[in-house]
Specification:
The protein is an alpha/beta fold. The chain has 11 helices and 8 strands.
Amino acid sequence: MKIFLDTANLDEIRKGASWGIVDGVTTNPTLVAREKTGFRKRIAEICEVVKGPVSAEVIALNTEGMIREGRELAKIASNVAVKIPMTPDGIAATKILSGEGITVNVTLVFSSNQALLAAKAGATFVSPFIGRMDDNGDDGIRMLSEIQQIYGNYGIKTEIIAASIRHPKHVIQAALIGADIATMPFKVLEKCFLHPMTDKGLDRFLKDWNNVKDLVDDR
């Protein structure tokens, strides 16, 4: 499973990239606004750090506007994926943009039906929001499983991005289902490293080494 960071913070992206495990980035207008910088400028900066897909979202609500914005966003860098909302206008825009060879990530997906329509329109990626589903009393992981089965039934090539991830357990659940990608906040990625037994074991190894080192120094 590929790992994307869901952030527009360059420090987080650079640190994640330095670990060698970040395959791409997803952003949205809210994330970029937090950084108090220009949208196109920040997308270009991220694309220089991460060579995998970098999702940049349109803000238009009609098909014509989405197509126009999508084409402009795609010019920023070759690894830009245009994020299009899951609406009738968005699906129409996805069909046209994907037909032009532009990478499209259909976002704000909350049902298997929506994921199927996105794939039919030629989306490269589809982003089901599992955490937000859970927040509203639904089962985001079940939806993810349904999408995986539907795509498998028909050999659909659209990649599933498990989005709106809240905690490391979501990452494992998405991996068990077979999601292609999990996109997560930097703090969730950091938590994936952690386990108290690792800390305890490392502490024990260091104490034992110090005892051995003392013996060697005494000789």
